[in-house]
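One example copied in:
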Amino acid sequence: MHSNAQPGHGAPLCVPTQKTLNILANKVMGLPQSLENRNGVLSVPPENAYMPNQIELVPGLRIDASATAPALPSELRLKPELLSPAGDRTCLLAAVENGADAVYFGLRRHNARIRAMNFDGADLAEVMALLHRRGVRGYVTLNTLVFPDELADVETTVRELAATGVDAVIIQDLGLARLIRAVSPGLEIHASTQMSITSEEGIRLAAELGCSRVILARELSLDEIKRIRSQARLPVEVFVHGALCVAYSGQCLTSEALGGRSANRGECAQACRMPYEILCDGQPVDLGKTQYLLSPQDLAAYDLIPRLIELGVSSLKIEGRLKSPEYVANITRHYRQAIDAAWAGQPVAFTPSAVEEMQLSFSRGFSHGFLDGNNHKVLVRGDYAKKRGIFVGRVAMVSVAGVVISCSTIVKPGDGVVFDGDDVAGVPEQGGRIYEVLAARSGRVELRFGRAAIELGRLQPGQGVWKTDDPELTARLRRSFEGSPARLVDLDLAVQAEAGMPLEVVAITANGHRASVRTESPLAPARSQPAGLNLLRDQLGRLGGTIYRLRDLAATILGAPMIPKSLLNQVRRDLVAQLDLAAAAPPPRAIAPEAALPALLTPIHQERRRQRQQQQAERSAASDLVSLSVLCRRTDQIEAAVALGMSTIYADYQDIKEYATAVAAARRGGAAIYLATPRIEKPFEANLFRFLAKLGADGILVRNAGGLYFCAERSIPFVADFSLNAANPLTVELFKSRGAMRVTASYDLNSAQLFDLIDAVPPDWLEVVIHQQIPMFHMEHCVYCAFLSPGADKTNCGRPCDHHDVKLRDRVGVEHPLKADVGCRNTLFNAVPQTAAEYLPRLIAHGARHLRIEFLDDDAQHVERIIGLYQTALSGQREAKTLWRDLKASNQYGVTRGPLNVL
């Protein structure tokens, strides 16, 4: 037999019939049947189209919409993708079998969930073949910052991903986007939520870097998503379920500050799940059992799916690469049902038992997160931070052999339960599996446990009881992805059977893969019972043990041929084998034959050499070329700084109405002043940049994409700050090319990595912060409003942030300052200043020319002392070791080297 298999990755390799195209368009993608077949490319009539030209929707099917309108008409929308997490191979199978359209997973390097099992790059081709056979797309996460010495290795990884058929890479690092585009222009890039994209300008930057999709920050409301979608140039992806970080992704430096473990490198220590105590004006605030002030409830937006579809969201994402396969199966299955129901125009209404099933897989309590807008009374419960599951009831009494509870849900032997603890009252949290359930009076039940499983004497009436595990549910979920495949791929067959001619069969799967078989010998005329449609359907449809199921069979039968069953069985087997091969074939994708990194770095290195040669020609001492700037948060700090000769001031005020005073103070001292933008810009907040531009400052300290475009398009001088996460020379050059005077080095760099970055870029390009209190959590969640105000948001909170000094005391007794910015976003600063004092000689020797000191609550006298210490060190009047000692003595908690000490 002659076989021909063609992978379904774009035209013209796969050329299905018009009939099959319309079937696929309608059944698989929900597109109108008015699509035209042009050599395997689906062409959308311009009056109905809204997407850029030639976008592949499923392998082998692309839309040609080169003459389309930019608006998204309500009558034509693509069914949103359901995107599920996969921390390992079993989770991946759980996602596939329970209805995911795509999965995202990480390798054992360069991904933001480094604690997950993850995938070995050696089996990547096999993994992608498995996904593509089932019509599922696979995205690989490279969503961490990339350090200078890692760029070559990352390029090798990108080449592997492009060659093995990965459908897209999810990235955080802006420089990495440039590298990927140079290596493989056709490899799809998705901008990670780690990019902190909250506005149209963030999407614009991602589009200019070659991204084809943006994963929006989880802090956006439905109204804000609507505004962004109305202006967006790219499809957007939105998280709909899973754990919520209290800090903006890509902006959390807590693990870095407290333990040298960077969340931007996949090593989050989950400090937000720890207990904290509020100190207001130096006094503890009694919040009772509320201790977990920064631990949000989990996101569960299943009932908002219709609204998200209405807004034109392209992909709905489930969080959970650290979760179990049962969790992935459970949540994927429920969201599959929700999307299908919403798409069919049916209500999305889960039963209480369905919601309880989701809660049992993992729940800290369900909420809509920020999708309904900011309600700071709802996001954080504060009484627990761990998985809880379903609330069962409360302890009524403790018996000799068990505990009697008022029960609001079904519990049975084998179920796992946990009893709430109370750290304040000294009551420990306890948990175990139920051994026996006995009926008690007044609708109560008595729970009994195995020997020594629960210390009954330490339980108290009123304690909450939670059901955390149901073995029956777990077993049922496991059956959904173990054993034979349950999610099958629809298969359409076209048969040409004519006596005296070879038998020809063409197979096309619902996801676009194609195979054909032609027998070597002609069919003989039948003597008694010629072949009919029933025979063909019966024999060719016997697809048990495969991933396929027959959906449609069209046959042309001429001359009453005889077709032996054995021949049809062999044709079927050959078709299946060919389809599997077609699905496993990676798409044709251009990959640069030579290493791309050297060409990107060469202009940077040339400029660095030019600047160093110019410095040598001028015969200036390295220390004479160093400039020291200061960031101040109060006007008395500015006055103290300019009195000591500081020529460059950055102002970062909580109340921006005071910026005019800051500008005047700098002017009186003859210093240049740059006004800081907030770290986050949301829709409707662009007026802030115009306000800053009117104040007469010398420039702006830019902390987000909106500020970047505002300054660049108006030729306003600006410095790119730390929040833009410049960790390698490609990212630094990107901001320089957009007009930045200097680029602040990322706070994620340790000393060795910082030296590598300084060595890799021209001296005048980089600014290094050498003294500061690290801004750890940067949050949409407002602690002031949640716990110090009767209000729920900024419209009715009374602004306690303007009137009170607030700190959060951690579990070891350290008091961290809390501040609010103009957008009412909170930042928790490390109580302990970080200094690079010991590294000053090496920083200067490596070429650092622009250094910065940052102050927080320091009074003018302390500002004078700290600046004076650094000035004497830079002038050579004191050694770095003595500077360290004096700085340590100047602060309540001493000082730390922070991540700089991690070598």
